[in-house]
Amino acid sequence: MYWILVIMAAIAAAVVALVVGGMVSPREYRVGRRLTLPVAPTVVYALLDDIVRYDDWVGAPLSLVREDGAAPGQIALQVVDDDTGVQRGWVWDVVGSAHETSPPSTLISLHERGRIENPVVRFFAALLGHAGGTERTLQRLATHLGHAGATIEPCT
Hints:
Layout: H1 2-24, E1 28-37, H2 41-49, E2 62-66, E3 74-81, E4 87-96, E5 106-115, H3 119-128, H4 132-144, E6 153-154
Antiparallel strand pairs: 1-5, 1-6, 2-3, 3-4, 4-5
C-alpha cells in the first residue's frame, strides 16, 4: 500500500521539478550558427530569399513572413511552425568570400530568436539547448545545396 504513495510522491516531485525548473529558465532565447559552403553567394541568397520554396528543403511545414529592416545581405523572417504554433525569428546572413576563389565560398549564418511561454517546454529547451532547430535547418540547407555533412559552428 505504501508503494502507491511513494510512486505518487515521486510523480508529484517530478512535476514540481519540471515546473520550477522552467520558471527559473529564461523565456527568451537567442542562438546563432554558421557554416561555409563552396557555393556562389548569389545561389545561396536566391534560395533563402525565395520564401515560397522553403518547404522544398526545410523539412517542416512553416509559415514565413518577411520582416522589415534587414541590413543588406540579410534576410529577416518571422517563422511559425504550422504543427506546433511556435513562433520565432530568423535572420540569415549571406557573405561571399572577400577575394575571387575557385570554387566560390559563402559564409551562411542563421540567427534565431524566440520566446517560450510554457515552463515545462522551456525547461526541456534549456536542458537540451536551443540550437537544435537552427543546426537542423542549416544542415538541411547544406544537404539541399549538395554538401551534406558540412561543419556547423556557433557564432555570436
